[in-house]
């Protein structure tokens, strides 16, 4: 019983450590159509592990069509 618990904890910690090396960009707003469209519309992005971005030549392009 204790061995299987130890293996489960080790696997979980390995996943957490492995995920820390990933640059993640998320769209925070707008989501799920919970907004009223206007002429000026905010778009909010969130970065996780932003220090990883310095190693990339990243670009963010936004295109809208009405």
From TrEMBL:
Pfam family, one: DUF7136
Domain of life: Eukaryota
Record domain DUF7136: where: 19-62
InterPro entries: DUF7136
N-terminal signal peptide: 1-21
Keyword tags: Signal
Protein name (database record): DUF7136 domain-containing protein
UniProt organism field: Aspergillus tanneri
